TrEMBL record:
Its cofactor is Zn(2+). PROSITE patterns: SIRTUIN (PS50305). Pfam families: SIR2. This is NAD-dependent protein deacylase. Binds 1 zinc ion per subunit. It is found in: Cytoplasm. It catalyses: N(6)-acetyl-L-lysyl-[protein] + NAD(+) + H2O = 2''-O-acetyl-ADP-D-ribose + nicotinamide + L-lysyl-[protein]; N(6)-succinyl-L-lysyl-[protein] + NAD(+) + H2O = 2''-O-succinyl-ADP-D-ribose + nicotinamide + L-lysyl-[protein]. Keywords: Cytoplasm, Hydrolase, Metal-binding, NAD, Transferase, Zinc. NAD-dependent lysine deacetylase and desuccinylase that specifically removes acetyl and succinyl groups on target proteins. Modulates the activities of several proteins which are inactive in their acylated form. Substrate binds at residues 52, 55.
Length: 230
């Protein structure tokens, strides 16, 4: 079976990583416009780097939970494409390989001048020189609002070919990720949503499993593995 899985902030929340946006509209106590847009970076690169340095430290201290580990198990029993909106590396540390990070990663650094990429140190600053061109144009390798997510052609193709599409811990509010379920359904896949509550695109799913990701994802994976062996 070919399975495409999209994960969002909800799968990492139980590992201690705060979800994307609090009820007051702030992201970890900052305005989205200040820390997650190219314009915000141009205005105050020091603030943006401090913000992501803190997020990098938080992610490094977090541990994968049962949901991350369950998806790693699933890869051994199905042709799995794992797509995540998350910028942490908990899927990889939970045992998953070849994860598609459509919004970039905290572990990556990017040169805004020449597009060179390298492994991010724990702490970065605007004055850090690019290892390739030497310019002080270092930024986090994160897709900000107004920028195109990574590997979208590959993602659309994998979703179109899937027999089953699952969205785990996603709000359904951020596009193009929010459009993947509809695309999968249009291409003939069965769709399932695993979440704490219904999302903004719940209508695009055939099935719904409600509860904490660390509880419902392992049960769902166990069922899929049992079906694959039947």
């Amino acid at each position: 079976m070919r399975i495409a899985v999209l994960t969002g902030a909800g799968i990492s929340a139980e590992s201690g990583i705060r979800t994307f946006r609090a009820s007051d509209g702030l992201w970890e106590d900052h305005r989205i416009e200040d820390v997650a847009t190219p314009e915000g970076f141009a205005r105050d690169p020091d603030l943006v780097h401090r913000f992501y340095n803190q997020r990098r430290a938080t992610a490094a201290a977090a541990e994968p939970n049962a949901a991350h580990r369950a998806l790693a198990r699933l890869a051994g029993h199905a042709q799995l494409t794992l797509i995540t909106q998350n910028v942490d590396d908990l899927h990889e540390r939970g045992g998953s390989e070849a994860v598609i990070h459509m919004h970039g990663t905290l572990t990556g650094a990017l040169c805004a001048a020449c597009d060179h990429r390298w492994q991010a140190p724990a702490v970065m600053s605007p004055s850090d020189p690019c290892p390739a061109c030497g310019k002080p144009s270092t930024r986090p390798d994160i897709v900000w609002f107004g920028e195109m997510p990574y590997r979208m052609e590959e993602i659309w193709e994998a979703v179109a070919k899937a027999d089953l599409f699952a969205a785990i811990g996603t709000s359904g509010q951020v596009y193009p990720a929010a459009g993947l379920a509809q695309h999968a359904r249009r291409c003939g896949a069965r769709t399932v949503e695993l979440n704490l509550a219904t999302s903004a695109v719940s209508r695009d799913f055939d099935d719904h499993l409600v509860g904490p990701a660390s509880e419902i994802v392992p049960l769902w994976v166990d069922r899929l593995i049992a079906e694959s062996r039947a």
